[in-house]
TrEMBL record:
Protein's gene: gcvP
Similarity annotation: Belongs to the GcvP family.
Positions of modified residues (N6-(pyridoxal phosphate)lysine): K694
The name this protein goes by in its record: glycine dehydrogenase (aminomethyl-transferring)
Cofactor(s) listed: pyridoxal 5'-phosphate
EC numbers for this chain: 1.4.4.2
Length: 956
């Protein structure tokens, strides 16, 4: 296969690739190759190369791609969404849509592992946590989960861990159908017995770890959960309450009612329907459960000057660190959507949000009153926004009649229609909806909130929720926060394994088109034809580039794709009556989520050692296969390896595992080195997950959204994720089928046009070109930096894959300077740090991607060489480590401009270490954080404003 030159400089491919043809040749010359084809032939093992590029069609221009996307969008039928079932009509304030969702300062940011350069998004996420904590009445909330159904599943796992002896969980039959479907199968996967029942205070049976209660129920009904909560507590179990955050302005908080855990979905706080996602789910818990809670948690600490600063708290819970001891595999959550929801709350404030809730409730009660006056039965007396209407035998006819009138409502069953009111509903809508059921004149209703459950506790009392009233203030607040951060719109983010590449604007701007954004996930297929055709085409393209038979985009994060793939393998073995295969071999170099996902799929993890060259140790693999052969379900391989090497033994590994009856899972996180050049499904894989937020350009969004499609070979196709609404959750899934993974059939469909646009605009040859240039960029950096920081692992011809590991351990031994010191010092040079201490402690893993031009690569090289010179000053004894610029980095504007300066180095060396920064300089808002302080003094909601008064900095 020959890669043609990039000749059309106006093509999307030329815009996506950082280096132009002249810069590419400079890089090739540095490496000793005359052409990109000669280089790729040397870098990638010949036995895994594809003979020709996998077919995804000819490349389209940006204009052409948007025209096709527009044609898909126009095939969707946008009705006024009164469907409910966990997804509500909402209005995204334009200042938030434009200032967050469509702003690269927010959507190109990475997960805030480096807190000093993430203070803006950390503050926004802390606002989200504070909002959820105050609404739910529980003291600790996380910074988002993936969706409501999987959040309920996570809460069940949490209850099971906290109450280790309990092996039964009771699920309220009033939960949404998709929640029951996902949560029941996830519970069964960890060997919990599931009972779905109409809850009463007389809980039956023993061995209970907990109960999950709907508040309100799927038909909109509100019942008092206190009796059930008291009953489960008396039996030693825990209570999870699933709730609607907008309803909590009118109904009492779950915490006040005795709940231990509260989960739900924040979608109706300004996040479009998006045909199912992405939406930020949430979890809040009692203080006793905080250290077992899944997901990320933002906390408050102090920096080197004693100034309060934000960071990810309790980081030992991060699942890539805990590996096989993990309690959750969540790595990507929904940060961008959590920011959107939190800003919606900040913008409207508690009074505005309560007004929205009261207005929605008022319209729902007027609708119910009008129906009752016309003799139509309203099923429930107590409700918030959803009215269940009894129409014996006529539910579908009513639904069809309303569809003709422009309304999407829910057929709950053959005799019942659900009508759920959202933010844009009007009195005119009430009249038209009521007219479909009754000829009665409009009536005014009274409150349908049960008196015993009317909210009396205050909420959203922190000043942040009552300080921004105008669009001007919101615009400036968003700008102030984003200015604090380093995102891809400012600088290269050289994170190994995370692929921070260009996110195409031509794809990004389509996701908020109303014809895409305003489609309900449970709309009938004939109203979502455009979505379905787009998704089918994208799944076909992904199957083509991976070499697998079929792909499902349902998993809404890479972690969920891993879980879906491993559950497919497990269920495949069970369907073959191969019940003893419960071991998953995981190389020591694998991504940490691999082991976590295996654990959640109820597979035992056995680690395979790494050879000196960074590859899988074949002798150790043979020993493990000899010992566990008949029990091996699968091996999980990351390829290229997490060590940044194209292992030439990958086919051998696959053959050895297949020979003993195991399956091969190839982690697709590093597909940016393979797409168009090699196919995991062709060189030995049975299943892979992909990261659309890495290789296929969905932005990271500060820690999500992500999409993690799962791709499988023909024999595993029956075990792909199933539609959550097409299963009977009361019974275990039938042997020989898959299980649902997320709340909606297509997961986070709302962001799929981005990946569709990227593939369409790149075309078959463009995808291969992107991979080749990603490998070229990594090797150029490795060659330029290896004299300063040795490259730990290389493959054939001394080349790396799309990333390389820089080894600092010897330098640390000589100078005391750690990899963390280098990461902090790079901030002063204007860079986000590479991946720190993974997969090898004491190292930095660098991935430049294909999107960075030669000048940016050279700027990074200059920075790293500057840091190396600063290390040498310590080694040579010219300055001691404690007094060095490295140990004290980073430096904010105040620290280098105030009158106090007690350091042995100059202000210029601290803040402007290279001349180019004199014109363009990023200052972090805070100094180096005290990580230990934040865990010893745990705070996970917004501190009062006076905590940030820095008048006493000098004393600190």
């Amino acid at each position: 296969m020959t890669l043609p030159p990039v000749t059309d400089t106006a093509s999307y491919l030329a815009r996506h690739l950082g280096p132009d043809s002249a810069e590419e040749q400079v890089m090739l010359n540095r490496l000793g190759y005359s052409s990109i084809n000669e280089f790729v032939d040397a870098a990638i093992p010949a036995d895994i190369r594809v003979p020709s590029t996998p077919e995804v069609g000819e490349a389209l221009s940006e204009t052409e791609a948007q025209a096709v996307l527009r044609s898909y969008a126009e095939k969707n039928v946008v009705l006024k969404a009164f469907y409910g079932q966990g997804y509500s009509d909402t209005i995204t304030p334009p200042v938030i849509r434009r200032g967050v969702v469509e702003d690269p300062g927010w959507y190109t940011a990475y997960t805030p592992y480096q807190p000093e350069i993430s203070q803006g998004r950390l503050e926004a996420l802390l606002n989200f946590q504070t909002m959820i904590s105050e609404l739910t009445g529980l003291p600790v909330a996380n910074a988002s989960l993936l969706d409501e159904a999987s959040a309920v599943a996570e809460s069940i796992g949490l209850m099971s861990r906290a109450k280790k002896k309990g092996r039964r969980v009771i699920l309220d039959a009033r939960l949404h159908p998709q929640v029951l479907a996902v949560a029941s199968e996830r519970a069964r996967a960890i060997d919990l017995e599931v009972e779905i029942t109409s809850l009463t205070e007389n809980l039956v049976g023993e061995d209970l770890c907990g109960v999950v209660i709907a508040y309100p129920g799927t038909e909109g009904d509100i019942t008092d959960p206190r009796g059930v909560i008291e009953a489960i507590h008396s039996r030693g179990g825990l209570a999870t309450v699933v709730t609607d955050p907008l309803a909590l302005f009118l109904i009492e908080s779950p915490g006040e009612l005795g709940a231990d855990i509260t989960v739900g979905n924040s979608q109706r706080f300004g996040v479009p329907l998006f045909y199912g996602g992405p939406h930020a789910a949430f979890m809040a818990v009692t203080d006793a459960l905080k250290r077992q809670m899944p997901g990320r948690l933002v906390g408050v600490s102090v920096d080197a000057d004693g100034t309060p600063a934000y960071r990810l708290a309790l980081q030992t819970r991060e699942q890539h660190i805990r590996r096989e001891k993990a309690t959750s595999n969540i790595c990507t959550a929904q940060a961008l959507l959590a920011v959107t929801a939190s800003m919606y709350a900040v913008y409207h404030g508690p009074a505005g949000l309560k007004l929205i809730a009261e207005r929605i409730h008022g319209l729902a009660t007027d609708f119910a009153a009008t129906l009752r006056s016309g003799g139509v039965e309203v099923v429930h007396e107590g409700f918030f926004d959803t009215v269940a209407v009894r129409v014996k035998g006529g539910a579908q006819a009513s639904v069809d009649k309303l569809a003709e009138a422009g309304y999407l409502v829910r057929p709950i069953d053959g005799n019942t229609v659900g009508v759920s009111f959202g933010e844009s509903a009007t009195k005119d809508d009430v009249a038209k909806l009521a007219a479909a059921f009754s000829t009665a004149a409009p009536s005014e209703g009274s409150s349908a909130i049960p008196k015993a459950l009317v909210r009396t506790t205050e909420t959203l009392t922190h000043p942040i929720f009552d300080s921004i009233h105008s669009e001007t203030q919101m615009m400036r607040y968003l700008r102030t926060l984003s200015d604090k951060d380093l995102a891809l719109d400012r600088t290269m983010i050289p994170l190994g394994s995370c692929t921070m590449k260009l996110n195409p604007t031509a794809g990004m701007e389509t996701i908020t088109w109303p014809e895409f954004a305003n489609i309900h996930p449970f709309a009938p297929d004939d109203q979502a034809r455009g979505w379905i055709e787009l998704i089918e085409e994208l799944e076909g393209w992904l199957a083509s580039v991976t070499g697998y038979a079929k792909v499902s985009v349902q998993p809404n994060a890479g972690s969920q794709g891993e879980l879906a793939g491993l559950l497919a393998i497990r269920r495949y073995h069970v369907s073959n009556n191969d019940l003893d295969r419960d071991i998953c071999l995981v190389p020591a170099s694998a991504h940490g989520t691999n082991a976590a996902s295996a654990t959640l799929a109820k597979l035992r993890v056995v680690v395979v050692a790494t050879a000196e060259d960074g590859s899988i140790n074949l002798d150790d693999l043979d020993a493990k296969l000899e010992k566990y052969g008949r029990n091996v379900a699968a091996i999980m391989i990351t390829y290229p390896s997490t060590h940044g090497v194209f292992e030439d033994t990958v086919r051998t590994v696959c053959e050895k595992v297949h020979a003993i009856g195991g399956q091969v899972y190839i982690d697709g996180a590093n597909m940016n080195a393979l797409t168009g050049l090699a196919q995991p499904g062709a060189f030995g894989g049975d299943v892979s997950h992909l990261n659309l937020h890495k290789t296929f350009t969905i932005p990271h969004g500060g820690g999500g959204p992500g999409v993690g499609p799962v791709a499988v070979a023909e024999h595993l196709v029956p075990f792909l994720p199933t539609n959550p609404l097409a299963t009977d959750p009361s019974q275990p899934a039938t042997t020989g089928t898959g299980v649902p993974i997320s709340s909606s059939k297509f997961g986070s469909a709302g962001v799929l046009p981005i990946s569709w646009g990227y593939i369409a605009m790149m075309g078959s040859e463009g995808l291969a070109r992107a991979s080749a240039n990603a490998i070229l960029g990594a090797n150029y950096l490795a060659a330029e930096l290896t004299d300063s920081f040795p490259v730990l692992y290389t493959g054939a011809h001394g080349l790396v894959a799309h990333e390389c590991i820089l080894d600092l351990r010897e330098l640390t031994a000589q100078s005391g300077v750690t990899a963390a010191d280098v990461a902090k010092r790079l901030i002063d040079y204007g860079f986000h740090a590479p991946t720190l201490a993974f997969p090898v402690s004491g190292t930095l893993m660098v991935e430049p991607t294909e999107s960075e031009d030669l000048a940016e690569l050279d700027r990074f090289i200059e920075a790293m060489r500057g840091v190396r010179a600063e290390i040498q000053e310590i080694i040579d004894g010219r300055i001691d480590y404690q007094s060095s610029v490295l140990h004290n980095a980073p430096f904010n504007a105040f620290s280098v401009s105030n009158d106090k300066w007690d350091y042995a180095f100059t202000r210029e060396q601290a803040a402007w270490p290279v001349p180019g920064q004199r014109r363009v300089k990023y200052f972090p808002p805070v100094r180096r954080l005290d990580e230990a302080f934040g865990d010893r003094n745990f705070v996970c909601s917004c501190p009062p404003p006076e905590a940030f008064d820095i008048h006493d900095t000098e004393e600190n």
